[in-house]
Amino acid sequence: MPSVKEVWQELIKDFKKHSFSSPPREARLLLSSVLEVEPSRLYLFWDEEFPEEKSARLEAFLKERLQGVPLQYLAGKWDFFSLTFRLRRGVFIPRLDTEGWVEEAITYLRSLPGEQITICDMCCGSGVIGLTCAFWVDNLYLYGADISPQAVELSQENAHLLGLDKKSTFLLSDLFSAFPALQFDAILSNPPYIKNSDWDSLPPEIRLYEPREALLAGEEGLDIIERILKEGEPFLKEGGLFFLEHDPEEREAIQKLADTLSLEYLRSIPDLTGNERASVIRKRRSNNENTHR
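The structure assignment produced for this chain is given below.
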């Protein structure tokens, strides 16, 4: 049998033939998934023989990956904010760009006074945003919601795997329609925000395999964001914050939308490339004070 390093080198050749943008990275991630080891530790097994019993799985993974199936679905899990989450087809794949604004949200949540902080992760998908906050903020309780039964089930599964069952509740809901009378310290969301007209220009890896309903949001890409702000405002405490991910080109429209509601646009949060990837919006206090909590 070839060594792990030799298998890795052959995988690189396969990915190069199919014009993948980063063949060494693809090979490393695919191989580590098959061997069930951390990608950063793969080199420790370089000189070991590749296990024969793993050959069929590797072949199947490679075939699907070359067809464009996202690696996250093949692996069945993915890391977000140093935590490992299960993933499966039919549920949106979390992106690295989301980690930046989630980190700022965690910093904000940790600064809040009181014995209990309550947040909502709207359009929760696999639950990565809300569960990450629940994991890193001790006195936090999470309500997550999604219109997809598969997403709600996966979020509950991830909560159990992370030991957060008692710190979270997930609801099958069209936005806030199934929620009881609650008020949150913050509402966080990575909602659908792609324009319908942009669908055909998306990479096949996204268009063919990720759920359309988790991506598209009308002609301007703002249908769901507008609903979250309007329908979510009564569920947010005075002075509480929305953290909303969006297309960088949508920031100005979101600011104008906030201005028409009882909301105050505070700032945008850049992603790793410097694009305005998320917005922070505050519910005004009844006395119009603009001081932070």
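Interim note for the steering committee: The CA atoms of residues 32 and 39 lie 5 Å apart. Residues 96-111 form the longest helix (16 residues).
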